[in-house]
Design brief:
Blueprint lengths: L3 E3 L1 E7 L6 E7 L9 E6 L4 E3 L3 H9 L11 E2 L18 E4 L1
Antiparallel strand pairs: 1-7, 2-3, 3-4, 5-6, 5-7
């Protein structure tokens, strides 16, 4: 298994030359999540979690010490309750490294 990182899904778009669906994901860094970076990755590489945005941020800011206790990794974002938040904003994928 490859290492993975928790990131915040921010947008999806299509690669003009290949037609591949791509995602922009913000990868926050611990302990200051505002010092993160953005990566563009194929959506097929994203693994969706059933964590809320609050769970994901607590995990990141705490350096991984605060967890929801369990993790369900689901490669199908449509089946994940975390695919969108109540206001329709970002989901919480883990990006394979």
């Amino acid at each position: 298994m490859s290492s993975q990182t928790t990131s915040i899904f921010t947008a999806v778009f299509e690669a003009v030359d290949t037609g591949e669906e791509l995602a922009a994901v913000y990868v926050p860094t611990a302990p200051n999540p505002t010092s993160g970076y953005v990566e563009i990755v194929p959506t097929k590489r994203l693994v969706w979690l059933d964590w809320s945005a609050n769970d994901a941020m607590a995990f990141i800011v705490s350096g991984g010490t605060m967890t929801p206790g369990k993790i369900r990794m689901n490669p199908n974002p449509a089946a994940s309750p975390a695919a969108t938040t109540a206001d329709g904003s970002a989901a919480s994928p883990i990006e394979p490294r």
